[in-house]
Amino acid sequence: MFSEANEKKLDEIITHYPVKRSAVLPALYIAQEEHGHVTDDDVRYIANRLDMRVNEVEEVVTFYTMYSRKPVGKYKLQVCRTLSCWLQGAEQIAEQIEHKIGCGVGETSKDGKFTLMEVECLGYCDLAPCLQVNFDYHEKVTPESVDKLIDGLKTK
Amino acid sequence: METVKITINGQEMTAPKGELLIEACEMNGIYLPRFCHHRGLTPQASCRMCVVRVDNPKIPKLQTACTMPVSDGMVVTTDSKEIEEVRAAMIEFLLSNHPVDCPVCDRAGECELQDQTYGFGEDRTRSQYADKENYLERQISPFMYNDPQRCVMCKRCTRVCEEWMDEFAITTINRGSATLISSFTGWVECSDCGNCVDVCPTGTLLHVPYKYVARPWDLKQTPTVCNFCSDGCSILAGTRSENLIRAVARDGRGRTAGGINHDFLCALGRYTVDFVHSDERVDRPMIRRGEHLVPATWDEALSHVAARLGEIKAQSGGDSIGVISAARLLNEDQFTLKRFATEVIGTKHADFYRDDDEIDLAAFFKHGQPAIATQSHIQSADAILLVGSDPNEENPLTAFSIRWAVRQKAARLIVVNSTPSRLERQAQLAVRVREGSEGALIYALLDESKAAEAAGAMGASVDQIKAIRQTLLESDRVVVIFGDELRGAALEALPLLEQILATPNADVAVAARKAHIDALQREVKSSNSTQKPSINENPYTYIVEHPTLEVGQDAARTETKFSFVPLVRYSNSMGAWQMGMSAAQNGGMSAQAMLNSSGGGVKALIVAGEDLIAKANGEASIVRSQLEKLDFLVVQEMFLTETAKMADVVLPVTSFAEAQGTQVNNGSQVQFVRRTIPPVGQARPDWMVTNQIAKLMGVDFGYQGQLKNIFKEIAEKVDGYEGLSHNFLANEGATPIKRAQADTSKIDRAELMNRLAGEVARVNRSVAVDTSAITAKAGSRLHNRYPLITRYSEMISPVSPQEEEVAAPLIFPA
Q: Does one domain contain both A50 and A95?
């Protein structure tokens, strides 16, 4: 199901916990890393590996916002919409990105490169507004810096 | 039971020690609002409606009464301005995403959310926003609709699915206000028990067959007893204008029929009751004229039957006429048929039909009636030995009780079976054995030295047999549940277990139980990551010994250590036996033997309610040709079955919903079946038909057309029925029938063991042991039974998405 390296990683992670099923979160990350999102087969496979029921794995995947059950772009652009960032113009940032990549919040751009999301507080209030691209933070973003950032990502 | 003193709202009250506060309040007449709390489920505390102020011991925050056990000297306030405000706020919160579409909701009128909003909520809301979560209502299983907007996330349904059914078919998906009840695929694959719908406090989950059919306040709800299996669950039968519309275990207001099943019901009992209104019911008597069955009046039909039976009796003697009854007929019907056979016809050939997988009650009761366990005995047993059968598919209530005992009472379950059964997941020890070798287990249990011999026959190991023996030996209350796999000498020998495996002394039992519970707790705490917990695949198993978690309040136990549950096949197999309607008791031919000698010794048959051809499996054509040889065949039936089509006279009779009387379940409990609807067409109860034929043949049973007079006679004549009456049973519910105990000292042990040894030796050892995993879908065998099999396909008639939008609501003819 997973690549050989990832299988090894999962085997190793399982040993970290007293109960096998506790490894469900890292296992899902591995799946997401490998397939871009958590596929139906991933859910079945993980359930099987960790002696869980598919419904239980599904419950976990859908509960946490950082797992995706649908295909997403290569870059997940996550704009913080909580108070500090909002006051600092997060809305304009989101609008700018929408304009730039040509799709709305919760959607994936046509080229399959970007997915725009609005998320709750990222803990960067002092450097608001904050934009998270996959696992990287970009603080004090402006419509101009966002433009530049996306142009750069497009060429990558 | 130990009690404690508590003070609620300034008044001193008593409550059982360890009881949950919410239940203690209810016992003392104080109702606390709740959504998530259910007596039969583990505490959840998600709805926060039952909050109370606890002053002693002083707790700074409001507490949920549904998770707080009472302690001595507890001081509680359940009613104050503060609590009122919190409750109102909770209701407002729960309603913030609710569409308030009561006028089109099937639950309106018996909705807990509606009731509690009236009782504890405000009449306004502050949360008027446009972007409510708008999930559309959709069908999520053949029998279930889901409308997520109405959900209050009490999770009763998912807990029922996990804890009661062990199916894990539904779960919560997403988070926050977007949470909904669904499953991995979105379509729920389960046994369709419908218990999740019953316990739902709102209109989120709805029964498909009941959708837009009736309003709860239009329904007349009559408690009666289901007649699909031998467990004998009570149902609340809802009727409107003389139509049977639904059957529930528990209505939205929490009312139950007060039966042995409490809030539990299976798919068969719940979704098939309206077969009684089928268009295919025979609605008038029919007499054969040449090739065809022609409608006739009752008078014509009955006098024809009486005349022909009289002729045949005069020509060939009484024994040329056989009487076969269906095991589902009520006691009164069986008793009247028995009297008819002996007093009117003068035949000894009277038998209730037993199919191949029916337990041989004659062997089991050969030496008297051993202690029979009821559902509450199973639920409070220390050890349960399940031999053969699969209660999950055949007797769902028994399966529920077994799971209950394992989960809530740490009972030790041993499953010995030749086919996969889902109950193996709960078992401490599950042994797959060779088909037909189940009796060898009894052989090994009775004589330790024969363990190796038995193990060889069973295809099991000696260690496994030793472990079973050890578990039974050191347990205090053992319930043996068995199917038809136990036959002959093994069945006869069951009462001997009491003698041979009596607990050495009470301390052993207590110590063994403690060790078992300790081991379980250790295992749950530290189950190794690489190793499956050996006790149970279900990771949620945990041990709670808590009075509120006991369904039956009586600390149920039988007089003897061992008690038995014969999983007989039909709703009244036990009753038919007790009424003496069995060939073994009458000294005549069995139903099969009667068929075989038809045309020879047997010239005429009276078949009450049994479709002999359908039951013949692969031998339908043989049965058909045997029936053709008869001079005269009377069939009392609801439907024009294959057997009825061959009859000379077909007499329409009532179904369980139209008949009144008593039936006996596999726990030997007699229960009162109430009439819920008037007879369909010209149908008459079986007893009445028999009584009328008898009268025409010159014998008056003296019933004066009154059903209760039959039961009066049963109470006088049948062992164990002394002092019972319809009135008593109607009020009392399930009443155990105690008969003469098996006298084990009279059993010739040596002879019995010899016969058992012979049976063990005859086991065909070339058959491989079925070690396949449990793969069958839950309920697959249940769904294959009439009338559910037809019902099932009705419900899942595929609808394309376009059609779905405009499709008329599913309405079923009442």
A: no
pLDDT higher than threshold 90 for residue B494: yes
How far are the Cα atoms of B357, B420, B423, B536 from residue B770, in angstroms, in the given order?
19, 8, 16, 20
Q: Which domain holds residue A125?
A: 75-154
Q: Is the pLDDT of residue B525 over 70?
A: no
Instruction: Give contacts of B526 with chain A, Cβ < 8 Å.
Output: 18
Q: What pLDDT does residue B523 have?
A: 65
Residue B44: per-residue pLDDT: 86
What span, in angstroms and rounded, lies between the C-alpha atoms of B356 and B374?
A: 25
The DSSP letter of residue B350 is E
Q: From the centroid of its chain, how far is CA B325?
A: 22
Cβ of A51 within 8 Å of Cβ of B532? The answer is yes
Question: Domain count of chain A?
Answer: 2
User: Does residue B542 surpass a pLDDT of 80?
Assistant: no
CATH topology classification for B3-79: Ubiquitin-like (UB roll) (3.10.20)
* CATH code for the domain of A126: 3.40.30.10
With an 8 Å Cβ cutoff, are B173 and A53 in contact? no
Nearest to B529 among A15, A59, A64 (CB): A15
Nearest residue in A to B527, CA atom: A19
Give which of A125, A137, A138, A131 is closest to A95, Cα–Cα.
A131
Nearest to A18 among B171, B174, B526 (CB): B526
Clarify whether residues A17 and A79 are in a common domain.
Answer: no
CATH superfamily of B363-566: Dimethylsulfoxide Reductase, domain 2 (3.40.228.10)
CB contact under 8 A, A63 and B174: yes
Chain A residues lying within 8 Å of B170, measured CB to CB? 55
Chain B interface test: which of A53, A60, A69, A119 (most B C-beta within 10 Å): A53
For residue B103, how many C-alpha atoms fall within 13 Å in the half-sphere facing its CB?
0
Which residues in B lie closer than 8 A to residue A21 (C-beta atoms)?
539
Q: How much is the average pLDDT of B209-220? A: 91
The span from the CA of B731 to the CA of B528, in Å, is 52
- pLDDT at residue number B398: 96
**pLDDT (0 to 100) of residue B1:** 66
User: What per-residue confidence (pLDDT) applies to B40?
Assistant: 82
ipTM score: 0.86
Residues A85 and A149 in one domain: yes
Question: Please, which residues have CB within 8 angstroms of residue B366's CB and are 6 or more apart in sequence?
Answer: B492
Helices A54-63 and A24-35: angle between axes, nearest 10 degrees: 70
In a domain, A68, yes or no: no
CATH for B286-357+570-736 (3.40.190.10, 3.40.50.740, 3.10.450.50, 3.30.470.30): 3.40.50.740
CATH number of the domain that residue A43 is part of? 1.10.10
- pLDDT (0 to 100) of residue B259: 87
pLDDT average, residue stretch B735-750: 84
How many angstroms separate the CA atoms of B390 and B262, rounded?
22
Q: Which residue shows structure tokens 């207590």?
A: B510
Q: Specify the pairing of strand B74-77 against strand B669-673.
A: unpaired
Out of B87-91, B545-549, B794-798, which region has the weakest mean confidence (pLDDT)?
B545-549
Question: Could you state, in order of their start, the residue ranges of all structural domains in chain B?
Answer: 3-79, 99-277, 286-357+570-736, 363-566
Whether residue B552 has pLDDT greater than 60 = no
Is the CATH code 2.40.50.100 the one for domain B99-277? Answer: no
Asked if omega into A129 is within 30° of 0 (cis), the reply is yes
Share of chain B above pLDDT 70, in %: 93
Give the tens place of pLDDT for each residue, B361-384: 999 999 888 999 999 899 888 899
Task: Enumerate the residues of chain B whose CB falls inside 8 A of the CB of residue A23.
Answer: 529
* Mean pLDDT computed over every residue of chain B: 88
Q: Give the lowest-confidence range in A14-18, B212-216, B792-796.
A: B792-796
Maximum alpha-carbon separation in chain A: 49
Give the mean model confidence (pLDDT) for residues B96-117.
92
